[in-house]
Automatic annotation (TrEMBL):
Top-level division of the source organism's lineage: Eukaryota
Name the record gives this protein: Uncharacterized protein
Alphabetical list of PANTHER family matching this protein: OS02G0567000 PROTEIN
Sequence segments annotated as region (Disordered): 23-50
Amino acid sequence: MNRGVGGPLLCIGDLLSDVADDGAAADGDGGGGLPLSSPSPRPLQPSGDLHQVFEDNYDQLIQSLDGNDHSWTALTLKLCAALKTADKLVTEANSNGESLLEKVESLESIIKRGDSAVSMVKSLQSVQIKKGGSLTINSNCKM
């Protein structure tokens, strides 16, 4: 792995590599993660605000890179944290969508069985009415 020459300022490749390494460590053992001096990620927000938060972080980063200050390192970490949060939200939404789809399919199956039972009872009633008798339904019967 080629890294930039040491010194007080990191090259952007070093920073992104460190963030990727920290992210892999945090995913693996549940600890570690971003340095304590980095800004903490915002709590999960409604999806309408997430896009705006990302744009604000990105705009701040671009302004910092255009200027002479060194806040771009913290802003880059903040942007990476926002991207991780967005990735977790997408993963959770996909998982919830799959679960919802399974539940809908289960409900459709139940509705079809109910419709089948209703049509069976209606046909039995019509046959019984044609014969002129009374209809008694056994409530212990499983459908």
